[in-house]
Amino acid sequence: SFQVVLFELENFQGRKAELTAECKDLGELGFEKVGSVLVESGPWLGFERQGCAGEQFILEKGEYPRWDTWSNSQASYTIMSLCPLQVDSAEHKLLLFENAGFAGRKMEIVDDDVPSLWAHGFQDRVASVKALNGTWVAYMYPGYRGRQFVFQHGEYKHWNDWEAALPQIQSVRRVRDMQWHKKGCFTLPAMPAPPTAPSSS
Predict the structure, then answer these.
(1) CB-side exposure of 197: number of CA atoms within 13 Å?
(2) Which of 62, 93, 97, 101 is the one with CA 20 to 30 A from 40?
(3) Which GO molecular function, any one, fits this protein according to its record (predicted)?
(4) Is 96 helix (H, G, I), strand (E, B) or coil?
(5) Structural domain contains residue 189
(6) Taking a C-beta distance cutoff of 8 angstroms, is the pair 50, 80 a contact?
(7) CATH number for the domain including 49?
(8) Would you write out the chain's pLDDT as a tens digit for each of its 201 residues?
């Protein structure tokens, strides 16, 4: 099951709306912008434009108190449409290719997250991709920073297929599903979770 709560203002304030299915235009719910997001169960994929188009933002289970917690690129800070992201498998296998049409140097990633392709001996030019198992999110810069690109099961012969302006990827990680991964989801190393108050019970 998928459940996400959207808030008009930062830090979970203001008007809110709960979604359990795709919404192609948050404006229809009365949202001019989304200030914060609470993902009860996911993952979800947010988009900067209506109709699930434009820049993508991966939203896994957790709290996103302001726009820069879901967008690592300074260019885009608004979510205008949202859809549940199906995670097809507990296994993960991704092939990255230097050139379009699955040509040139190749890097295979199996059941691993790679914060830097350079550190693994691969360049930052990635012009085609095969997602053989699992769901992945790639980033333009090392350390899971910059514009995000989601790869679901399938073949991407050219960087235009994932709506990139140029063939640049420098880090990739697996998208986790709570069904498969009991430990939970991804957290950015630079953003530790706030301590929780001890329960009174």
Answers:
(1) 3
(2) 93
(3) structural constituent of eye lens
(4) strand
(5) no
(6) yes
(7) 2.60.20.10
(8) 899 999 999 999 999 999 999 999 999 999 988 999 999 998 999 999 999 988 899 999 999 999 888 886 666 668 999 999 988 677 899 999 999 999 999 999 999 999 999 999 998 899 999 999 999 999 999 999 999 999 999 999 999 999 899 999 999 999 976 554 444 445 555 544 555 555 554
